[in-house]
Amino acid sequence: MPVHIYGLPVDMDPVFECASDHDLKIVEDAAEAHGAEYFSRVKGGRWSKCGNLSDVACFSFYANKVVTTGEGGMVVTNDPSIAARAASYRNLCFHPEKRFYHTELCYNFRMTNLQAAVGIAQLERIDEVITLRRSFARYYKAQFERVHGIRFQAEVPYGRSVHWMYAVQLDEALGIDAETMMERLGRKGIGSRPFFVGLHAQPVLQKLGLFKDERFPRTDRAHRQGFYLPSGLTLTKPQIDVVCEAVCEVVEGG
User: Which one is the CATH code of 5-123: 1.10.1670.10, 3.40.640.10, 1.10.10.10, 3.40.50.2300?
Assistant: First the structure.
């Protein structure tokens, strides 16, 4: 299950090869990658949209996603049997020929017509939104290129990111972690958010006995040193300048 994190596509060719070698299905998590694209050598040397690279893919429509309906999401597939199965789970697994008769435990994941209308309206302008996000990302990166110890999101030859979030990671040599940075930015009236916590550090999974005696130092370091910058679509470049200047002041102040 590859996860396209923060709008940047996973390098899928090794995944395709592994799935082919072991006869595996691929479930693609494209929750943060609406409109992102991947170039595959294995799949004929062409660019394809994330969500169209697997047997099944899922998207999130949470409030902070590229396309949002406030809450909810979407599952996509080219397999009619999987589509039927997903539709059944979404709708309480009603028996297809006998309503209110259930042969399986299931869920109520139905999206309202109002939510769908909001999503469709946003989908109609997704190209405009992606262009804007990429423009802001380039501007952020240009501001930080001159600052030692701040690493911006990677650019890769096989992927076109939609920059769901403008994520930066602080070099540990700066002596400042993300929590300290976010606190000091908050004092300056600038909002920010921390990186995700690794699954191995989640108490609920530890209680289940998972990840026992396992260590994931890179994941821990990313959470400890990484944070998101403001990313709203109404941002202006002068506002981004203010954000970048504030980050630089904290870095230079130590």
Answer: 3.40.640.10
pLDDT in tens, 5-41: 999 999 999 999 999 999 999 999 999 999 999 999 9
Cα end-to-end span (Å), the chain: 40
pTM: 0.88
Output the CATH code of domain 127-253. 3.90.1150.10
Q: Where are the domains of the chain?
A: 5-123, 127-253
Structural contact between residues 15 and 38, judged by C-beta atoms closer than 8 angstroms: no
CA distance 244 to 54: 38
* Helices and strands counted in the chain (H then E): 8, 12
Local structure of 25: helix, strand or coil = coil
Task: Report how far Cα 81 is from the mean position of its chain's Cα atoms.
Answer: 27
156 by Cβ neighbours in 10 Å (0-12 / 13-18 / 19+) ranks as middle
Say which residues have a Cβ less than 8 Å from residue 246's Cβ, sequence separation at least 6: 185, 188, 190
CA 24 to chain centre: 24
